[in-house]
Amino acid sequence: MEHEKVAELRDLLMALPGCEKVDMCFSCGTCVSRCPIQQKVEPAYNPRRLLKMVALNMQQDSFSSITPYLCSACDLCYAACPQEIHISAVLNGVKKLAVEAGFVTPLKTARVDALTCIGCGFCEKTCPYEAISLKEVNVPMRGKGLLIAEVDAAKCMACGTCSMICRSNSIELQAWENSEGMVDSIWSWFETAEMGGEG
Amino acid sequence: MVDAARHPKVDVRTYTTVERVEGYVGNFKVQLREKARHVIADRCNGCGECAKACPIEVPNYFEMNLAPRKAAYVPMSQSVPLRYTIDEDACIHCYKCVDACGALEAIDFSQEDKIAWEDIGSIVVATGFNHFDPSVIPEYGYSRYPNVITAMEMERLNNSAGPTTGNLIRPSDQKNPQRLAIINCVGSRDKRFNPWCSNFCCMYAIKNAVLLKQMNPQLEISIYYMDIRTPSKGYEEFYDRARSMGIRFIQGRPSLITEDPKTRNLFVHAEDVVLGKISELEYDMVMLNQAAVPQLDVDTVSSVLNITQSPGGWFMEYHPKLRPVDSPTDGIFLAGACQGLKDIPSSVSSGLATASRAGRILHSDEWEIEPIIAQVWEDRCVMAQGKVCGVCARACPYGAIVIEEGKAASVTVAKCHGCGGCVAECPHNAITQMHFTDAQVLAQMRALLADKPEEKVFAFRCHWCSYGGADLAGTSHFDYSANERGIRVMCSARMDPDFLYEAYRLGAGAVLYSGCHPQDCHYITGQKVGATRAERLAKIFEKMEMTPGRFRVEWISAAEGDKYARVINELQQVINDIPHDQLRQEIERLKPEMEKRARRMYETPGVDKAIEYSEEMARIITAQEVKSGA
Hints:
The structure holds two protein chains of two kinds.
Chain A: H1 9-14, H2 30-34, H3 36-40, H4 47-55, H5 59-64, H6 67-70, H7 76-80, H8 87-100, E1 108-112, H9 122-126, E2 132-139, E3 143-151, H10 161-165, E4 171-175, H11 179-198
Antiparallel strand pairs in A: 1-4, 2-3
Helix pairs in contact in A: 4-8
Chain B: H1 2-6, E1 16-24, E2 27-34, H2 49-53, E3 57-59, E4 68-70, E5 72-73, E6 85-86, H3 96-101, E7 114-120, E8 123-125, E9 129-131, E10 148-150, H4 151-157, E11 179-186, H5 201-215, E12 220-225, H6 235-244, E13 248-251, E14 256-259, E15 266-272, E16 277-283, E17 285-290, E18 292-294, H7 298-305, E19 332-334, H8 344-362, E20 374-376, H9 391-395, E21 401-402, E22 410-411, H10 421-425, E23 431-433, H11 438-448, E24 457-462, H12 466-475, E25 484-489, H13 497-505, E26 510-515, H14 526-543, E27 551-555, H15 561-577, H16 580-597, H17 599-603, H18 607-627
Parallel strand pairs in B: 8-19, 10-17, 11-12, 11-17, 12-13, 24-25, 24-26, 26-27
Antiparallel strand pairs in B: 1-2, 2-7, 3-4, 5-6, 9-18, 14-15, 15-16, 20-23, 21-22
Helix pairs in contact in B: 5-6, 11-18, 12-15, 13-16
């Protein structure tokens, strides 16, 4: 009899393309010593450790780790990995699952100003991570069914290329604020407005 | 080696290749090509005057090309026999060597390759291994950075008889290095190159480090490793000794070596995985402990001797645990690393084992083989009637069947291993396999399918793999359908189409055709014969419009008990999914066709008696079940 089994992090991840070999990691450290991000950007970044955490189903730890969000998918580690693990695909998969589980990327990802976007699609073509797509949306105070660029925060790596190429200066890199933060900021805005009103 | 050369009963043939091997155990005929040395072996006394006189210098392969040798040379000073050879590719025919040889008159430029046939009783293959060339790994910079050397180059530099008389110097400036890095697993445990662990390199790295440290205690040595493997007697203690001598062990596989172009010093980039920190340490010299790989001509040797290869190119043994030094061909044995990587103690034990295995053949007048050999009914073979056939000879993985025009095929008994491929392939049922005759298999089938055959999952299993898999499924207590009924044949090659037709004719619900995975076959290419036939059968059954899934082909190893159980359960599911009446109708519909196709088998000698006997058995079985109220 097959027992009912709850799919855990490792199972969910292995179902994603490119992540099949995550179990094969024998922690040699080649990826870490090959990684430009580890050495130039963030010493806490460690794909080897993340792979181990995934194999051991440490869901909270791997989702809150900085590693999956910082990978730029340069794939220097993939070419050097003796076990032929597509590490950037694994990191990307973890990021995807983390965002689905409600984790917010700590990166300043791209955000589109729907009021000024002209829907030219330059950003969609230029994005190296296929994070931007044009969608028909209703924009308040502008119109209905407009073609506006939309950023998938789970895919965006905050490289800023879209922001550079945007003809209408509609894309900026910003930190995503969670709803609580947004409420707080609205309150503070009201407070200052009130104060301004008084003054 | 010197002792072997001096022994009156040992004949050492060097500079000789094996070109062809014919015959069988105890009676091999081997064609040897003795290459032309241009030196008469009996006259040469190894004085070396010819080498002194020779003006040509070429890289010395034995010294890993770190030193030159002459065109007139011996491979190394301890060569056995100590006979010089003129390298035809390098020689400019100045004939100074002839003058230097003088009165001995040992040099003969008119010599040509000698080809001769020899009678040989048994053959031992001890062709060893080759070294992986690390220059294909760009990140380590071997061949670009002069101070990155291989383990074999280190071996020569460190050897008192080597080109530097044991003085360890770095190639860029001939200075003694003060900081040395040894990198393990270069090209091994690496799916991009060789997936295997090369077995002895961990100990080899430690040995070299200890030797170098003993000679120069000032030398700083770091060994980069993924895992240190010290599984034999005294190895772990040796590792302890290395650490207590101050040799540094860094766990982490380097990803990159860079060079300072001025000093030619090297930087090794690695993560120390224990600390979780990146290190970029500077060294004067780096030794790459490269993987061991099969010899370049392994395919040639394998086809000359008819030995199969395991994945990776190592020669395949008859059985990995029980007959580790026998090759699948009787009378041919495997010693040392050509069968799989071994360190020195294991190579010596395997050599001694092959010597005794091979000696057994030389000492016996008669040779016992398994009694399951194939036999030809000469009156049934169409070759005897002057027709062209030879299907059996093509199916035989051992070349044991001899066919001559106008004569019945004959089996060379000593070569036959009893896979039964020829028996199943013969279109005229003119061959039988002892102990697995058509009649015997048929009787088993009839007994197993006597009662409610449409509910049964009938499995054909090969002796070596899928039968073991079924056994494991049972001993591991895996749950699988109780309706499974199976019989054992030696190989999937023996699974005669007639058996399958007969199984369906008898009304079997579903039939499994199972055997070894292609690389595991114990009969060299037996599985291939079986697999080709299975494909053909699947097409035939499809054309008959049999419900898909009632015929299933699966390759199951002896370790895959879970797979066996799963496959049987899936077949049971196939039977369950067909409405009972529909299944019976289908069986009835296909019966005449199956009977027509299996008709030749009923003519085979012995089959009529088997049918009579098994019908009696079936009658008793059903009668008993009626009595017990089942």
